[in-house]
């Protein structure tokens, strides 16, 4: 099946930051990648509300694929996520001051969901573009994991043909000026890496049908 539209989301700044590389990269993506239309949406770093915004964006755009992008400070490369777990457990408050502790994302949901995205092919494509990338098996327990899980929950209950997944990207260089030794990635490289990952998704989706 040919992918005609991909929804790519990025979070707003959180934890007193003034920038989030996820949204900065997402909003700079080209309008078309590998023949697929790219539509973008900013999501709030807020439990539940992030999923509501995603749900509305899916209804508005009817994409074939959803790829959510989030910041993972301390990681050196782009890291596609394999799995989301049914757990909200926040080390810091979200942007509305919520800090859940050991709460389920969905009380009637399974313990975990695996992504439909070709995460190993995404890693290979990013590396082929000359950028660091690793497969990740933990999206954490903050709003990133929450949104990835909610996307899968929505898919299971409402959008069965959708492919959905998540990828973390590193800090921007400006975010680590006062963090010696913490890795970062230039914004242009983050955009290039996401573009490579999206290209791999398009190729895999076409091969799957």
UniProtKB/TrEMBL annotation:
Q: Which UniProt keywords apply?
A: Cytoplasm, Hydrolase, Protease, Thiol protease
Query: What PROSITE patterns would the database entry show?
Result: PYRASE_CYS
For this protein, the Enzyme Commission number is 3.4.19.3
Q: Which top class of enzyme applies to this chain?
A: hydrolase
Q: Which domain of life is it from?
A: Bacteria
Q: Can you name a GO cellular component term?
A: cytosol
InterPro entries in the record, alphabetically? Peptidase_C15 (IPR000816), Peptidase_C15-like (IPR016125), Peptidase_C15-like_sf (IPR036440), PGP-I_bact-type (IPR029762), PGPEP1_Cys_AS (IPR033694)
Record's catalysed reaction(s): Release of an N-terminal pyroglutamyl group from a polypeptide, the second amino acid generally not being Pro
Q: Give any Pfam family that matches.
A: Peptidase_C15
Enumerate the Gene Ontology biological process terms. proteolysis
Molecular functions (GO terms): pyroglutamyl-peptidase activity
- Give the positions the UniProt entry annotates as the active site: 81, 144, 168
Subcellular location(s) per record: Cytoplasm
What family classification does the UniProt entry report for this protein?
Answer: Belongs to the peptidase C15 family.
This molecule's function is given as: Removes 5-oxoproline from various penultimate amino acid residues except L-proline.
Subunit relationships: Homotetramer.
Q: What is this protein called?
A: Pyrrolidone-carboxylate peptidase
Q: What organism is the protein native to?
A: Levilactobacillus namurensis DSM 19117
């Amino acid at each position: 099946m040919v992918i005609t539209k991909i929804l790519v989301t990025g979070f707003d700044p959180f934890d007193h930051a003034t920038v989030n590389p996820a949204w900065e990269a997402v909003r700079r993506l080209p309008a078309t990648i590998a023949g697929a239309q790219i539509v973008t949406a900013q999501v709030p770093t807020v439990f539940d509300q992030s999923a509501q915004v995603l749900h509305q964006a899916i209804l508005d755009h009817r994409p074939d694929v959803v790829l959510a992008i989030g910041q993972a400070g301390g990681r050196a490369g782009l890291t596609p996520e394999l799995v989301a777990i049914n757990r909200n457990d926040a080390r810091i408050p979200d942007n509305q001051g919520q800090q859940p502790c050991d709460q389920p994302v969905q009380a009637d949901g399974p313990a975990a969901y695996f992504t439909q995205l070709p995460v190993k092919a995404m890693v290979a494509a990013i590396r082929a573009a000359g950028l660091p990338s690793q497969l990740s098996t933990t999206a954490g327990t903050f709003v990133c994991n929450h949104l990835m899980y909610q996307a899968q929950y929505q898919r299971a209950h409402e959008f069965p043909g959708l492919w959905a997944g998540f990828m973390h990207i590193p800090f921007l260089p400006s975010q680590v000026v006062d963090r010696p030794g913490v890795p970062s990635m230039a914004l242009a490289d983050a955009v290039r890496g996401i573009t490579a990952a999206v290209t791999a998704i398009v190729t895999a989706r076409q091969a799957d049908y």
